[in-house]
Design a protein that fits this description.
Blueprint (H helix, E strand, L loop, with lengths): L1 H34 L6 H24 L10 H16 L2 E3 L2 E3 L1 H18 L3 H25 L3 E9 L4 H13 L3 E9 L6 E9 L2 H12 L4 E6 L4
Antiparallel strand pairs: 1-2, 3-5, 3-6, 4-5
């Protein structure tokens, strides 16, 4: 009787520990996604990870309960979850013309599902290592890419009402802030006092930084138009 109570209490503690560990590990990845204002944040990742934990525990429970009575593979239920996760992942993927967004978030949902399954089966080392690696990839990959990616040429044409030293210095500061290395700046005054044309040539590793710089420059009061001439 004492052995039965000890076994039951040990099993209950194991279930509770797995559930809480699943919340912590999957929540870490969910918080990272939420900080970037992605479609699936903390709640989605935690709930999906808990589904993985519960399904793995359910498979293990059924296999132990009917041991010797019937043969049941505890991996059958998790397999069905992995095949069905595509529906949730597809809901986070948005397409706008040739631009596709949400792929990384969809993959992170698949990651927390696998982490939940690993926790549910008691593979704690794998789950923790996976959480650390996924978090580092999601949070730091842009830094790595910007440091090792090849440079892209930047050709900006800025049409302004007027130009002066203060404006040019402000433009330079904004480009440097976006990690755009300036190679040359040329200023041409338009005829009949119709403004000025500023031609900037530079280089940058991040296309996102270039797009952000164009948007920020366009918001300046005296600037009428900013064009980034992309190379074919």
């Amino acid at each position: 009787m004492d052995n039965l109570i000890w076994i039951t209490s040990t099993y209950s503690f194991s279930v509770v520990m797995k559930v809480f560990l699943g919340v912590i590990l999957c929540g870490i990845i969910g918080l990272e996604r939420q900080n970037w204002n992605k479609p699936a944040g903390f709640k989605t990742h935690v709930l999906l990870g808990l589904c993985g934990v519960l399904i793995m525990l359910s498979g293990e429970f059924i296999a132990n309960k009917y041991i010797g009575i019937t043969s049941f593979d505890p991996t059958r239920l998790p397999a069905q979850l992995l095949s069905g996760i595509g529906f949730i992942g597809a809901g986070t993927i948005l397409r706008n013309g040739f631009s596709v967004k949400g792929l990384t978030t969809a993959v992170s949902l698949l990651s927390v599902t696998c982490i939940g399954l690993a926790v549910g089966m008691g593979f704690y080392l794998g789950a923790i290592l996976m959480t650390v690696i996924v978090y580092l990839v999601l949070s730091s990959s842009h830094v790595i890419i910007e440091n090792i990616a090849p440079y892209s040429n930047v050709h900006l044409t800025i049409k302004a009402e007027e130009t002066n030293d203060e404006m040019i210095n402000r433009i330079q500061s904004m480009l440097v802030e976006k990690r755009i290395k300036i190679k040359s700046i040329r200023i041409r005054e338009e005829k009949d006092n119709e403004g000025s044309i500023v031609k900037i040539v530079g280089k940058c590793r991040s296309e996102r930084n270039i797009n952000t710089a164009v948007a920020d420059l366009s918001s300046l009061e005296q600037i009428e138009e900013v064009v980034h001439e992309r190379e074919d």
